[in-house]
Amino acid sequence: MVISIHLDSDTPLYEQLRNQIVIGIATGELAAEEKLPTVRQLAEDLGINTMTVNKAYSILKQEGYIVIDRRHGAKVSPRSTQTQDGSNHTAQLEEQLQLIIAQATIKGIDQSRFQALCSTIFAQMKYQH
Amino acid sequence: MVISIHLDSDTPLYEQLRNQIVIGIATGELAAEEKLPTVRQLAEDLGINTMTVNKAYSILKQEGYIVIDRRHGAKVSPRSTQTQDGSNHTAQLEEQLQLIIAQATIKGIDQSRFQALCSTIFAQMKYQH
DNA sequence: TCATATGTATTAATATATATAATACTTAGT
DNA sequence: ACTAAGTATTATATATATTAATACATATGA
């Protein structure tokens, strides 16, 4: 998977990494159980610090997106384990969505256009439980 | 409009303010042309610094959500002026949506449930151009 | 005219977040 | 034992966030 970072972005590097990997999992570009590059390798490829990559991996692990074992490195969590934390996801999703929809509404994007956009994006997601 | 901030949140105070005001405009809780509290007043009400509120207002102004004049303070932008900056909004919206939908997908929320959630939220938005 | 309330600007101080760097530790497979 | 993986430690530099105290500019209303 190709990961690109933008040093001039206002989004922290570790967060850019985290986001791109999450999207990679959802689109299926990163298959379940697939091995991720080592922290050292990815850091070198991107020209950034080891600990920055490590932070991204730690977050992904804590969020349940990946599993890590010392010897084999990091890999995408098996499909079955992704769903299990449950409750507060919906609340958080709802909050994020509310803000996005508020902004879209004010900027003149109506519901049908918004829903169409969602459909297009959903069509890219190959992840299957 | 009731604004509440959370000091323990990972979201900066000025951003919490900014977000809540944006949502307030979209839901219609803040009408177009409605006067916002003064920076000093809001800062005092919330028990935070004047400059933090000022930063939120500055961002909202720069984003076009509110207009400010020295004497009368800040007020919600008239409906007609909200739409005008145009182009990169959709791109930004698309990017935010992609991440949210990716996360939702992995967590097992399917498209129909997602769309239903969007509908519920859209129903709260009373803002009209 | 003139006091006043408004958003702003300035300057300083402090705390936290971000990123790099160099190095060492832990662990498990070969 | 060696090695490669994540992780921990320590230090440093920079940027961001927040508060604080104060002052400035300006347009309104008395």
Automatic annotation (TrEMBL), chains A, B:
SMART domains: HTH_GNTR. The keyword RNA-binding does not apply. Pfam families: GntR (PF00392). SUPFAM superfamilies: Winged helix' DNA-binding domain. Residues 11-79 form the HTH gntR-type domain. Signal peptide: none annotated. Keywords: DNA-binding, Transcription, Transcription regulation. This is GntR family transcriptional regulator. It comes from Paenibacillus mendelii. The lineage of its organism: Bacteria, Bacillati, Bacillota, Bacilli, Bacillales.
